[in-house]
UniProtKB/TrEMBL annotation:
Keyword field: Hydrolase
Protein's UniProt name: Alpha/beta hydrolase
PANTHER family xrefs: AB HYDROLASE SUPERFAMILY PROTEIN YCLE, MONOACYLGLYCEROL LIPASE
Database matches in InterPro entries: AB_hydrolase_1, AB_hydrolase_fold, AB_hydrolase_sf
Keyword presence, Cytoplasm: no
Length: 260
């Protein structure tokens, strides 16, 4: 897989996958994963689109930066990478934290985005209690490493039923840098509220959520759907927080219809 080192990204080296040709479809992973969470979509949509899936700063094989990584930083990283790759306008999708990065991109450069996919995410800023929890979790990851956290949240990430999915998700979580994950948690705790951004953006939108998602339940998806006139809401039955991996056939059908 290619990597690129860009001075506009503080010299970090970004690992990414670039498959297929045609209209660009950019996929942004969630926390604490890497670009391989989009493997079913990379395989399926590269027949019709140029599919771009980067490892975010601090995740996968992209450079780890410590301290605090704001969603703004992730969005600017993404814009610089897409500039380098010659992708001026694109469809942009993200799951969970990745969905919030998509919202930050909508806030900063909506003119470049042809349509968005917001999966299992929320536009609302963290409450004081949620901010404290993210900060405490960041400290825990630095203290304990990723293993105990990964085991604890697996069943909230994916519903039981597929050992291969379990193994993939556990592998991504255990392989994530605690420093990178902690930096993202601290930055995410300070994210703005995106309600007005979604209300005003006016781009086509597909909203997807797993019926069993505890992190960002159906009510969060319904809020986004209500904010974005003309958007389509798809509830994937039996899936938890990662319907693109748990039920790839249903997720891909919904995304293909949206792109068409």
């Amino acid at each position: 897989m290619p990597t690129v080192s860009l001075g506009s990204l503080d010299g970090i080296t970004v690992n990414y996958e670039d498959r297929g040709s045609g209209d660009p479809l950019v996929l942004v992973h969630g926390h604490p994963f890497d670009h391989t969470m989009w493997r079913p979509q990379l395989e399926y949509f590269s027949a019709t689109h140029r599919v771009l899936a980067p490892d975010l700063r601090g995740y996968g094989k992209t450079t780890v930066t410590r301290g605090k990584t704001l969603l703004e930083t992730f969005a600017l990283d993404l814009a610089a990478l897409l500039d380098h790759l010659g992708a001026e306008r694109f469809f942009l999708g993200g799951l969970s934290m990745g969905g919030q990065i998509v919202m930050e991109c909508l806030r900063r450069f909506p003119h470049r985005i042809r349509g968005v996919v917001l999966a299992d995410t929320s536009p609302v800023a963290d409450s004081p209690e949620a901010r404290r929890f993210r900060t405490e979790t960041a400290e825990r990851l630095l203290r304990e490493g990723m293993g105990p956290y990964a085991e604890e949240v697996l069943r909230k990430m994916v519903a039981p039923g597929d050992a291969n999915v379990d193994g993939h998700v556990l592998g991504m979580m255990r392989g994530t840098s605690p420093e990178g994950a902690a930096a993202a948690l601290r930055g995410r705790a300070e994210r703005p509220d995106y309600v007005e951004t979604l209300r005003e953006c006016g781009v086509p939108a597909l909203i997807v959520v797993g019926s069993e998602d505890e992190f960002t339940p159906i009510s969060d998806a319904e809020l986004i759907h209500g904010l974005m006139p003309g958007s389509r809401l798809v509830v994937v039955k039996g899936a938890a927080h990662m319907p693109n991996l748990e039920r790839p056939g249903e997720f891909n059908r919904a995304l293909a219809e949206f792109l068409a």
